Amino acid sequence: LSLSATQSRRLFAWALLMVGVVPHLGAAETPFAEQIDRIIDAAHRRDGLQGAKLADDAEFLRRVYLDLAGVVPTQKQAREFFEDSAEGKREKLIDRLLAAPTFSLQMARVFDAMLVERRVATIPSYDFKPAEWQDWLATAFRENMSWDRLSAAMLQSDGTSDTGAAAARFYLVRDVEPHLLARDIGRLFLGKDLQCAQCHDDPRIKTYLQADYYGLYAFVSRLKHFRDDKQKMNFVTEKAAGDVSFTSAFSGEMGKTNPLLPGGEMIADPTLVKGKEYQVKPEKGQMGIPTYSRRLQLARQLPRKQTIGFSRNITNRLWDQMLGRGLVHPLDMHHPDNPPSHPELLDRLSQRFEATGYDIRGLLREIALTRAYQRSSRLPEGADPKRPPAARDFVVAALRPLTPEQLGWSVMQVTGRLSSRIERFDRKLREAAEKKPEKNPEKASAKTPQTGPPPIDSDAPAGPDERNWQAHRQAYRELATELSGLFTVFSRLPGQPDNGFQPSVDQALFLLNSEQMVKFTGDFPLLDRLTPLADKPDDLVSGLYLSILARLPADEERREVAGLLAGTKTVEERRAVIRRIIWGLLVSAEFRLNH
Amino acid sequence: VQGQGQPQRHEPAGKCRDVQHVSRRGLLRSTLGGAVGAAIGGRTVFEAEAAAAAVPPPKKLLLLFLSGGASQLETFDPKPDSKYGGPFRPIATSIPGIQIGELLPHTATILDRLAVIRSVNTGETSHFRGHYLLQSGRKVPGYPVLGSVMARLLERPGDELPGYVTMRRHHPQAYTDVGDAGFLGPRYEGVMIIDGKPPANIARPDAIDAVTVKTRDHIRRLTNRRFLQRRVPRSIQSYSDSYHKADALMRRREVFDLERESAADRARYGDHHFGRNCLLARRLLEAGVHCVKVAHHDWDAHFENFHWQRQRCLEFDRTFVTLLDDFRDRGLLDETLVVIMGEMGRTPRINYYGGRDHWGDAWSMAFAGCGIKPGVVLGKTNALGTEVVDGAVDAGDLFHTIMAAMGLDPKGNYQVGGRDNPIADPAMSAIREVLA
């Protein structure tokens, strides 16, 4: 068979088309979560590994609540889920959690920890209050703001705008210190820790260049903190001029640079007419605003598909958030000598993330739907726990420590304090709404939190959604003060990446002996609910374990608790025993870990 | 922003080093040494083999931190004939031909037991950065301070007490909370003793009765045992371990109780912050803590420097010598390195208020105890005391020297969170002249 030139060209074009399109068509039919799992399963087959079974309902429920709502489920939520026998109930739960107010609040905490890393400005009053910033984040997540917009908002905010000023905390919490900013922009937005490249090209990582470090640095080198003493407000100000040069501590080579994103083009400053360098001239007590801003260039240029690492960094961080391990690990070490554990998976996730317009909620949904996420944390039958599989293989669900916030809020949840506070606020808001139906719901949300929570008896929101949101916001904000001691003891060190689980003695001492824990385990709604069940010990024990550990007790546990309660005569004695058991469960590894 | 882009100076002035050469070679070696060091506590493989026959007890570190910056001119490097010399006279010491300031008469009699460096040049004049720099050996933030380094490198499986205890007073300008365990993480944070008070939550409050403790523990163990089945044990066990350690610390909380020391000892060490903390340091090091830092405050004499240096020296001098004598008599000095330093020195020039200001270019510090060559006085400053003219060392060199004196490999690497990080700055090196 011989083909003419035209024919063969046509055939070639057709073949190209098939190669390009057919797998694509096939992929479109397979749900995205399934595509993820296929990649991981293929790696398991290649390496002769066997993935753990799917988590049972209890394991899945607690995990997905912790990840998407930031707290363990209530006893009622657990019961309802276990009793639901409908097909697809996990997917339904995931969607419900993603739509709930707790999701926005949880994401605000996750991104606060990710972007601020527990830092505090050297002079804390020279920064936005953490609550204002958290509120900004929570509102952004409530609107499902995309990651490119969220990034741009932070990088461009100088603290002056009427809405979203608190986004400037990214700069302010770092004292607007250019070196710190350059390093953290590289780490947190591009997944590259260029710290060593501050003084010379990184000798261990060939692609981490001093020129790249100073390229990032040049975007922020003209920035400075500006304090308006009259208004007691803080801003980020920028000079109109200032060049960046650097010298290698190893070779003595010198360089000069303009703003530059790693691997990108250098961005030249426009030539400005002399005397027109500023829109607002800096004077004493007057913050300068330059005609040309490198900071705004950064906000425009960085959050884009073209920026190397922009999508992959956040995709990898979200995967780590859900699975307890990045595909690239450490999270800020993206470079050719540290490839992803599953290169194709990171590609697909990033492409998907870009294609959906950087939809964080959407990506978390897909991840939550995977078998990889829903695996049990129990090893497959016959596996040797002493020789655990590597985390990078995603064979078994990781045991992850609860964050300080997950831990604190879960203590509030299981003792019943959180839900009773939310209900109280909800009731108040409903009553207020019924009293003043003419009030505009938008007014309440427009209030800035600067002076603490808005008074709840005025401007009450009308819609049930808005009311539910406000009730959650206010309940969490009010209870947060009681948890501040716990948050401090359990927080990792400021500015340090997460080092995995490092349980420390002072944390154990806090949970055993602190005033706060004495108070948390004093009187609480759960105790009132459980104590009357003393003559139905089975119900009591079930309620106890469902409330604290979100599972039913094993037989052995039923016997133990029944035994402990057996000798009690008075209500007070019973209360005391139940309280001790609850405290024992709160200090168990099962409670401390997301499993 | 001219100048801001300048990298941090790696080589100390007056010392000739090929930085690139040193650090590249250092890096190469440190990668190898690190893997071995992790397993055997930081020594090189050859030393470890030699030591295998009789494993020596791990060394301890006592850091006496003269916070605020002691004046080198009133202590270890007097300049009696200079216009900046001040009113005090130098006195002879137990090292022939070497004089120190008359404010340290007791120290003068035992100077032959110290190694003194008169040529520290860090160039750093901020309290905060200085505290961090001198304790971490780095300018770049995020590295662990000495105490946390020791807590990590000297950690032993059976340890009941915290590896690092740090003591200071409660004061907004304590300056000392500037560094911590850095990337090593909270496990290696110093346990803080503020104004002599024991660590938080170390005693069971009255509100918790013994039955509660027992039941709580029983339920915790029962739940953990069940939870451990077929799960990767590492985090579950390390969590249990933290309770075990908390128990041990509660049981042994008397190690923080100075009342257990004799009245005579308390009198000898001095009834002031520094004296009490030094005695507590002895108690803690003997009990098995790996590193203790005692901050001695108020050296920052911008006004009436001579009054303040005298005040400070009065406390420091006698207590320090009492401590060294005690440590020697108790055999503690053979296994303990004592480091005396602050975050900076003070300006030779005397200001309008009779004060001396911040000075990082030429100042002094001292070592005693294990791994040190006693009786050495290293380095020289010029006649006015404004510049180092011989043997300049930087903070990173001091850090290397402390590692080496403790028998640890400064060229090793930490392996934390999947990354290698050199324990000491590869561009610096140990000061051989003061090492035994």
Structure description:
The complex is a heterodimer of chains A (595) and B (436). With 595 residues, chain A is mostly helical. Chain A has 27 helices and 8 strands. In chain A, the strands form 4 sheets. In chain A, strands 1-2 form a two-stranded antiparallel sheet. Chain A has a two-stranded antiparallel ribbon with strand order 3-4. In chain A, strands 5-6 form a two-stranded antiparallel sheet. In chain A, strand 3 (244-247) and strand 4 (254-257) form a beta hairpin. Chain A is globular. By secondary structure, chain B is an alpha/beta fold. Chain B is 34% helix and 16% strand. Chains A and B meet through strand 3, helix 21, helix 25, helix 26 and helix 27 of A and helix 1, helix 6 and helix 7 of B.
Instruction: Give the DSSP E fraction of chain B (strand runs of 2 or more residues).
Output: 15-25%
**Uncertain spans of chain B, ≥5 residues at pLDDT below 50?**
1-53
Spatial extent as radius of gyration of chain A: 27 Å
Distance N to C terminus of chain A: 63 Å
Short description:
Chain A has 595 residues and is mainly α. Chain A is 53% helix and 5% strand. Chain A has a two-stranded antiparallel ribbon. A two-stranded antiparallel sheet of chain A has the order 3-4.
